[in-house]
Write a structure and sequence with these properties.
Layout: E1 12-13, E2 19-20, H1 25-33, H2 40-47, H3 69-74, H4 102-105, H5 115-118, H6 151-174, E3 178-180, E4 188-190, H7 214-227, H8 232-250
Antiparallel strand pairs: 1-2, 3-4
Helix pairs in contact: 6-7, 6-8, 7-8
Length: about 260
């Protein structure tokens, strides 16, 4: 019989240059692909020497890629998101020991979450759709008064606020309205009719948003990053909330009433 063995990945080098050994060969193999293609270093290299609020023809959108769970999981240790100076960010998520590797939480072939095992600790989790209801504390991070919603809801509200702030900034500072679609590359487009919605005729490569300032690019990068890890609320909610809060603040959004972890 033919013998098969898992591909050996002793350590993983992330886009910023951080070298991570999770201590588990299966997780290292997962991290090798689920780390993203960009990082804070990519954004810094693109914007160095440029005025924060001046449109530059040298800038284009930076895409971190899809399903970047590894970048979220390790937080500031790998800096997959753009992190703002003089702010502190969470490192690797500390979960219970028995569910602290990729394959302890996910089926290693289909990547599906082992929902039944989540439900053993998280009350009310009987199916995949229930995962978004999980939360571990009653802090009202998004300031909406609802502490019964899952932590995914806290993240979603702040992310929605960030998108609104990005659109306001793009129109008011960059001078060109912007609109986003998570499923259509290059993701950010010029909003030619200014209605805040992506129309079919706008969703073309030739209409990719081009009025980038460094500040707008950083905000768009972080917004897109948070979208491209749909399980961010489970992988490292604290880190994602910190990143979204600081991005919203930097792009001119209202953070009054929000709580930064």
């Amino acid at each position: 019989l033919t013998a098969f063995a898992i591909y050996q990945v002793p350590a993983v080098t992330f886009p910023r240059g951080a070298v991570i050994d999770s201590g588990n060969l299966s997780s290292n193999l997962c991290l090798n692909c689920h780390q993203g293609l960009s990082s804070i270093a990519t954004v810094n290299a693109a914007t160095v020497g440029l005025e924060l609020d001046t449109v530059s023809e040298d800038l284009e959108f930076i895409n971190i890629h899809n399903l970047v769970a590894g970048a979220t999981l390790y937080g500031t240790e790998v800096q997959g998101a753009y992190e703002y100076a003089d702010k502190e960010y969470a490192g690797r998520l500390a979960h219970v020991e028995s569910f602290n590797t990729c394959t302890q939480c996910h089926n290693h072939h289909r990547q599906e979450v082992k929902v039944g095992e989540c439900g053993a600790c998280h009350a009310g989790v009987a199916g995949r759709d229930d995962l978004v209801n999980i939360r571990m504390d009653l802090t009202d991070y998004d300031g909406d008064g609802d502490t019964a919603e899952g932590i995914a809801g806290e993240i979603a509200t702040i992310r929605d606020g960030l998108y609104e702030a990005i659109q306001i900034y793009a129109s008011g500072v960059a001078g060109i309205p912007i609109v986003y679609d998570p499923g259509t590359s290059p993701y950010f487009f010029g909003d030619s009719n200014g209605n805040g919605q992506l129309e079919p005729e706008e969703a073309t490569a030739s209409n990719g948003y081009a009025a980038w300032t460094p500040r707008l690019l950083r905000a768009a990068y972080n917004f897109h990053y948070s979208v491209k890890d749909p399980g961010a609320f489970a992988h490292n909610a604290e880190y994602v909330l910190q990143v979204l809060h600081d991005t919203l603040e930097d792009v001119g959004g209202d953070v009054a009433g929000l709580v930064r972890p």
